Every structure is written in C-alpha cells, then in structure tokens.
What does this fold into?
Amino acid sequence: MAYKFWFCTGSQDLYGDECLRKVAANSKKIVEELNSSGVLPYEIVWKPTLITNEVIRKTFREANDDESCAGVITWMHTFSPAKSWILGLKEYRKPLLHLHTQFNIEIPYDTIDMDFMNENQAAHGDREYGHIVTRMGIERKVIMGHWSSERVKSRIADWMLTAVGIVESSHIRIARFADNMRNVAVTEGDKVDAQIKFGWEVDAYPVNEAYEYVKAVNEADVNALLDEYYSKYNLITEGRDPEEFKAHVKVQARIELGFEKFLKENNYHGIVTHFGDLGALRQLPGLAVQRLMEKGYGFGAEGDWKTAAMVRLMKLMTKDKKDARGTSFMEDYTYNLVKGKEGILEAHMLEVCPTIADGDIGIKVCPLSMGGREDPARLVFTSKTGAGVAASLVDLGHRFRLIINEVECKKTERPMPKLPVATAFWTPKPSLEVGAESWIICGGAHHTAFTYDLTSEQLVDWAAAMGIEAVVIDGSTTIRGLKQELMWNNAAFGK
Ligand code: MN
It folds into this structure.
C-alpha cells in the first residue's frame, strides 16, 4: 500500500475571503515544501481549508474510508472554534498529528498589524483545537516548530512510520506451527486480548500442515534457491564433506520455499516455531526462518507469537524508511561483565535476521543440542554498530506492557570462532547494571524485537495508540524513578 497523509488546515469564515485565500496558499506551500524535501517517507496530500463542522466531518469521514490514507495532519493557521471539530474528531479513527507550526519564522517587526496577527495565530488557534482533542480523550501526536526546520521534518517522518504501524497492526496475522514451549511463562499471553488491543490474528496449525507445503516444493525450485544461497553467502564447511554440507543446506532451502508458500496462500505475515515440535521437518528451520525475516515476515521462537507480531510490526514500520539498518527477533544470551566493556551478547539458536548483519554472511551446518533432529544450516554474521531499541511485549495477566530499552550496539572485543550463530552485542542504557535491573523489574522477556530504525518515542506513541502501557529504559532511567513510574502505571491501568 502506497500510503498518503492528509494535510488539513483549520480556519473560520470570520476573517474574510482575502485571509482565507492566504491561508490556503500558505498551507499549500507548506505541503509542497514538505513533499519536495525528500525527508518524508510518504506523500502529504493538501486538503481545502476546514472552516465549518460539516466540512470537517466530511473530510474526516473520507479519511476513514480512503484505504490509502494512513493519517491526518491538522494545523490551525488562524483561530478555528473547536466545537466545529467535535463531530469530525468523534468519527475519525486513524492516526492524528497536530502540527503546531506557523507560516512565518520571525515576527515581521516593521510591518506587523492586527490583520497579520489574525491571519497568523496558530499560537492561539492551535491551543483552542488542542483543548478539544484533549477533552475528548483522543490520542494524537503534537509536533511544534517551524515547518521548514530539519527537526520538524524528521519528526513528521518518524510519526508517519508510527502511523503506518498503527494502521497496519490490525492486519497482522501470525501462524503458530507449535504451541508455546512447555513451562515457559513469558512467551504466553492472551490471544483474544491481543486481537482486541492490537488487531492481531494468531492461529495455530499442526506443524505437519506446513510440512506438506515443504514436501510439495519442486526440486528445480529448491536447487535454484540453493544456487542463490551458494552465490550470496560464504560457505563455512569447517571440514564437513561439501556434498553432505550441501544436502543439509538444501533442507533449509526447501523449508524456506514451503513455508513462504504456506504464508502467502493462507495470508499470514509471521510464524512461530518450536524446536521441540517439528513434526516431519528434518531440521529446525534456521536459515529458512532467517531468510523469511529478511523478506519482512515476523518470527518468534518457542511459540512466542507476541514477539513474532512485534517483529512483523517493526518491519512494517521501517520498510519505507530510507537507509534502514535492520530489524530482528533477538534473545539476551550471555553477559560480558568486564569493567568498561559491559554488554549483552545477543543471539538465538539460529534465528537472527540478516538485515542487521554487518559485512559478510556465512553459512554453517552444526549440531543443535536440542530437538534431536539433523544438524541445521544457519546464516552466521555479526551485527552493525550504533543505536537501536529492543522491545518486549509482556502479558501481565490482565493487560499488556511494552518494555523498550534503548541500546548501543558494539563489536565484541574479539571474534568468537567457535560460536555457530549470528550475534549482536549491545550495552543497554543507561548502563548494563541499571538497564538489566530495570528490564527485570519491568518483567521484560528474554526474547525481544530489535531494530536500529525506530526510536523509543515511536514505540511509545504506537503503544499509546493501542491503549497499553509503555515503559522506556533510557539514559535517564533510575531504579527509584522506574519503580515509582510502574506504581503509578499500575494505578492508571489497574494492577
Ligand atoms: Mn528463545
């Protein structure tokens, strides 16, 4: 879907036609400049000035009905009495941005008169409008600043990605090829509540139903994909017989094609697997799942459908981001506790998305101590450095909490030649000590949805739109402050 955003300027008929002509011309100019800036991931569509409650209601209803409209940007160029907005806002059900800007940057000291004041009074009109949105309890984003500034443009760009996440969330469908791992608590959750809150459909299938698709893939297609693997990735055979190695890799090529056909035919956007429930599959899907994630599918291991949906959501939110650096399912594995070099080694048994890779990607075939199947083929690599966010959606029994940790990705000090999985290494903010303590106090999982391409602000805004609690662990987090925040949140959301 090529999403668009509507730009709706508020005014009223009190100031005469001349003023309204200028209002329209100014808002058109803003839209043109924003669109040509190259900063925004989606196009903004200018709409005629909204001056009466009939026009406002009609415009919002049209925005609801237009599938390509992912949100409305509102701005009160002049004063626009907010009662006119009630009916339209009441019926509107897509993301809303209140751009609190004004046409001019500087007060025109030498020429300013009352006509100019009346024409350029967003400082006044946007407050009246903001009041009614708050009074009606509507979740919206407010961005303040001159429309030409780089900061405002990049914040609008970020919000557009959030809006797409809000609009797309209700289309996410996850296929569960296994139930949650026995005895594990944090990967569980209320699927009905998830559908009510987020719109996610989470359906179970016997893994052998997916296997039927794997079995049915034709040999020529498998060989073609195998050739692609062999041309794209380094083969790290580590003394294995090349033919035996290739046979193992081929199993994953077949799984990738079979699973993808299943997902496409049945309209799913993510899967969960479980090493303990593989049916007739010969290997735990490793390389196959890594490639599917790279194509934009969500994934969660050991039945973790919440993380699978979060990975899918993040992939949707970032797919139109320029220079995106990657998004993956991830797991906190082991620590480096050396002073000054603290961090968490992130990996999974196999399933880390190659979009986060830095440099060469290799294929390895190694035994897996769990599951009792053939040695699975997997892609191995290390990940990019830089800032990212790790998110964990947990079910507290009666409600969801989204925990977001800002992290700094680094290179490990030395290579790990014997580790046969893709890895990332990061230091959580504000430090490993406070970050990990905070995560545990929040009840965060060992599985996360990780991305370099979103900010905690975007995930918080998404959570607010879903009506769930979000807790950010960042550079300013203290344990005392966090515990107070959780206490207040418990009061607000119900413990
Ligand atoms: Mn796991």
